[in-house]
Amino acid sequence: KNQVEQSPQSLIILEGKNCTLQCNYTVSPFSNLRWYKQDTGRGPVSLTIMTFSENTKSNGRYTATLDADTKQSSLHITASQLSDSASYICVVSDRGSTLGRLYFGRGTQLTVWP
Amino acid sequence: EADIYQTPRYLVIGTGKKITLECSQTMGHDKMYWYQQDPGMELHLIHYSYGVNSTEKGDLSSESTVSRIRTEHFPLTLESARPSHTSQYLCASSAIGSVDGEAFFGQGTRLTVV
Fold this sequence. Notes:
The structure holds 2 protein chains of 2 kinds. Chain A is built from no helices and 11 strands. Chain A is mainly beta. Chain B has strands at 4-7, 10-13, 19-25, 31-37, 44-49, 56-57, 65-66, 76-78, 87-94, 104-105, 109-113. Chain B is mostly beta strands. Classes of the chains: A mainly beta, B mainly beta. Chains A and B meet through strand 4 and strand 5 of A and strand 5, strand 9 and strand 10 of B.
């Protein structure tokens, strides 16, 4: 069964600190993995997209890693800001259909305190 | 900022009423999707479309129906709303033929059926 598991479920950190969010998946055949940021009451917005051959990708203070062998990904946020408070969702796409089916994790709810 | 719009943003309606949630995109995307998301839970695909006159049911069974008469519009209809339909509904679109392409999400419609 194709699944995406994220940890931790929620995380509270102080402003300026770093944090790392985890994503494990069993989706096969694998196409790509995306990290989305979803602010409360809004739609998800893409942060990074990684294909099979990519190990790491950065977008400003966000750095995503991918280990396709162990089927694990992480999202590292450096020098956190209050505006980073949101849900971070790991989304894996399969290559087994023309739809490019998206499988969503439940997200990690990040809260940044001043 | 993605050019995909959902209306209304919030809707409170009585049981038994018929409702239509609107979704429009101006990016010329062929693929469009409807997801249902309960608080703290993952997104579940309820409907998708490859293009005009194409509609398919997603992974999560839903009593809602959709239509795709025009490329830019993908409305979702509930003929008789029930409290169990209370949820957030997210619309998304992506370019066809781009399995690795990004899905752009609307802001969502928060539906409450009383």
